[in-house]
Amino acid sequence: MSDLATGEATELLQQLIRNGCVNDGTPESGHEDRQVAVLCSYLDVPGAELETFSKRPGRANLVLRIEGRDRAAPTLVLMGHTDVVPANAEGWRRDPFGGELVDGEVWGRGAVDMLNLTATMAVATKQLLRGGFRPRGTLVYLAVADEENEGIHGARFMTDEHWDRVRADYVISENGGVRSDLPSTSDGLKLHLTVAEKGTQWVKLRVRGTPGHGSAPYRSDNAVTKAARIVARVAAYEPPIALHDIWRRYVTAMAFPAELERAFTDPERLDASLASMPAGLAKLVHASTRNTLSPNVLRGGTKVNVIADEAIVEIDIRTLPDASRDAVRSLLQDAVGDLWTGVELLHESDNVSTASPSQTPLTDVLDRVTRSLLPEARLVPAMTVGATDNRFFRRKGAVAYGYGLMSPTLTMSQFRSMFHGRDERVHVESLRLSAELWERTAREFLG
Could you tell me if 310 and 300 are in contact, meaning their C-beta atoms sit under 8 angstroms apart? Predict the structure, then answer.
């Protein structure tokens, strides 16, 4: 990848960060039109056919298609989202929406989740267009809104209502290509290729109480107090360990030292092994081996001197492959215990875990291209514990992977700590590697 293209990727990422397209979960947030305007301006070159689609004003999605010569050849979608989660500047070392380039790193919200890939995919697509790329198969660049809130205005909207424009045999989106810092008995870089993801079964609970004067709380029926007890119970709950096939195959591929491999495949020993790991890795292993329940929102009460008659609790539940909705709800009821009888279930999402085959023609190409850029690298099929837009394409029958190519100086622990965290940043070397990866992959896979 030329220095010019790397510079373009850097500048484009900086612009996307500075646009501050924050998705707080409300329909009116996001403002992804700002991102689409920047991307359209950047991609406006001869041969580019740009289309925009919006379910709601201000929340645009961008499609650029390079039609293939052979209808029987596969279609590959390179998909990046354009929204980011909120960032509180307090605690950051730099402005989270400044897009500053400091010591070879671009800082800001979205730098790793996932504006770096959205930008490098655009740069690679522009490079291909500049070179007159006319492949046998079809290449689609897709920039979507609303990934950070269930994809309602983004990938879900596009796959439900505009499938003819984004129909795909294969999709690449976030995340992967980061060096694992877990110990291994084999040499070389172990880079995660995300082939599966946990499901989301978010729930919203309402707890009722009886209003009264705050000066006399004795024997009061306080909804906030009951909701707080529910939150404490859910937070302390320990769901059973489930060592599913994707996890077992991952453990084998990683070639862990014998003692660690035994711990990772023995439910009686697994949790004890987490204490000696860096926090980021321990979180990953923990979340990969059980359904998780995280009570993240508690709202209640109307005034300081009024006993609350209602409280809302929102719980982020992530589900393993093959976990049924009813079984997971039973876990929640078990966690809440006798307080469940006073709970009203207001909302329960139903996004089941999805997966793609770990060995396909596309993985073969990704492996070859990765080795051409980092000869010591080896791809390890893995599951992400978060949700991505890939799930919408998998449900349509497409094979979808999470990948990228990050600088080997970045470890998995560092990478994970920046997702929705403070001081998010990405090295320019990662931008160079990813942009090169996308261009070479498109050329080799689509022909």
Answer: yes
**Is position 191 within any domain?**
no
**CATH code of residue 398:** 3.40.630.10
Please tell me whether residues 341 and 373 are part of one structural domain. no
Convert 82-122 into a string of H (helix), E (strand) and C (coil): CCECCCCCCCCCCCCCCCCEECCEEECCCCCCCHHHHHHHH
Count, residues in the chain: 447
66 assigned to some structural domain: yes
Contact 294, 315 (CB under 8 A): yes
Pairing of strands 138-144, 75-81: parallel
3-state SS assignment for residue 384: strand
Query: Is-contact 330 216, C-beta < 8 A?
Result: no
Q: Is the pLDDT of residue 281 over 80?
A: no
- What is the DSSP-derived secondary structure letter of residue 189? E
Query: Within a domain: residue 190?
Result: no
Mean pLDDT, all residues of the chain: 94
d(CA 118, CA 78): 9
pLDDT at 2 over 70: no
Which domain covers residue 300, as residue numbers?
199-348
pLDDT at res. 414: 86
Boundary-marking domain end, from 327, 348, 369: 348
Give the separation between CA 210 and CA 234, rounded to whole angstroms.
Answer: 23
Residue 297 is part of a domain; what is its CATH number?
A: 3.30.70.360
In the chain, how many domains are there? 2
Scored b (16 or more CB within 10 A) or e, 384-399 reads bbbbbbbbbbbeeebb
What pTM does this model have? 0.91
pLDDT tens per residue, range 54-108: 999 999 999 999 999 999 999 999 999 999 999 999 999 999 999 999 999 999 9
Please indicate, yes or no, whether residues 343 and 370 belong to a single structural domain of this protein.
no
Please list, residue by residue across 298-326, b when 16 or more beta carbons sit within 10 angstroms of its beta carbon and e when fewer do. Answer: eebbeeeeebbbbbbbbbebbbbbebeee
Q: Which two tokens stand for residue 438?
A: 């996308």
User: pLDDT value at position 1?
Assistant: 58
Does residue 162 sit in the same domain as residue 33?
Answer: yes
- 165 shares its domain with 231: no
pLDDT tens sequence across 266-276: 999 999 989 88
Residue 156 φ/ψ region, left for φ over 0, alpha for ψ in the -120 to 50 degree band, beta for the rest:
alpha
Same domain (yes/no): 9, 123:
yes
Half-sphere CA count of 69, side-chain side, radius 13 A: 6
| 221 and 274 part of one domain | yes
Domain boundary among 318, 348, 378: 348
